[in-house]
Amino acid sequence: MKFTANKETSLTAAQCAKRIGLTVRALRLYEQAGLVRPGRTGKNWRVYGTSEVARLNEIIALKRLGLSLQHIAQLLGGQATDLDRMLSMQNLALKEKLQRIQYSLSIVENLRTKIAAGDLLSVDELLTLARDTNMDNTSSEAIAWRRYEQARPRKEKKIDPALYAEYEGYYALDQLAYIITNRDGRLFSHLPGQPELEIFPEDVDHFFYKAVQAQLTFNRNVDGEIVGLVLHQHGYEHDAPRVEDDRGMALEDALADRIRQKRPVENGQALLRLVIEDLLGEPDYKLLTPPLANLAWEQSESAGPFFKSLGALKDLAFEKVTKEGWDLYDVSFENGRLYWSFVLDDAGSFSGLYYRSHHETD
């Protein structure tokens, strides 16, 4: 159905979503965030005209750059916003992608040279080719390979202890401060609300945990300076650029302030409602980061029937911010209640999400 107003063709929410490749839920989210203001018919139905469609395309383009909804709102509202960190992360991601492509090309060229010399390719070589050239970084196959790699036994290697001072400092894992501490010739890592854990060298710039199946890789720039780290865990790779001490302490203070004031993230309730409604229906996981979406898909066979047994979503009540920096909500359904907790990445997507019954302790 189309509506005409001011000589401009208007679209219903469903028609608009289909035209620009979004979901109706996404349109509702952007409206709740104040990013778009659709018109209304006499029956109070939402309609989208040329200006609203143009604005939605701007939002999509900015989200692809990695901007959060809050930053997008500031930009579109003419407010100044700090884009340097987002551009730094985008730069790092593009460089890593380029490195993967160059590595894949080198594998192909080496195998072609071997074939030209009359040699046969081994099964291991073909598996390496399949793994490293035909898999997207967030595909199920790539994640499975990384889980295998991260779970293998590690062997500690002695490196120059003087290097430890280079790793020490703050790293920004989304809105959390990842702290690396050099103490008594040993290196420790710490995340908010979690115990400090020692990390052990596997090689220069490569460390591993003994307490958990996870590793850290420190990245250097062309001048040899440490500029960030990568956390390898659960089959995923999480980038954390290095930040100045004052920025790291500001992240710590901001989290402590949110916990103390029991202040939820902006639009958190609306976002959680959307993602729960998605999981209760036919989920498309578009509100989740790729790693979390893959995990949700893997668990869908067992979780799907449970979600459907809960019945319709009724109400969400904010409880607190956990010591780890996750927002906790008490969520009631037609057939029960659960605690849901989540954390968002810098782009406003769910990077962590879990639920538990009221009988389970924190």
Automatic annotation (TrEMBL):
InterPro entries: DNA-bd_dom_put_sf, MerR-type_HTH_dom, MerR_fam
Domain HTH merR-type: 10-78
Entry GO MF terms: DNA binding; DNA-binding transcription factor activity
SUPFAM superfamilies cross-referenced by the UniProt entry: Putative DNA-binding domain
Alphabetically ordered keywords of this record: DNA-binding, Repressor, Transcription, Transcription regulation
Keyword DNA-binding in annotation: yes
Highest taxon listed in the record's lineage: Bacteria
PROSITE patterns given in the database record: HTH_MERR_2 (PS50937)
Protein name: Transcriptional regulator
Organism, scientific name: Pararhizobium antarcticum
Lineage: Bacteria, Pseudomonadati, Pseudomonadota, Alphaproteobacteria, Hyphomicrobiales
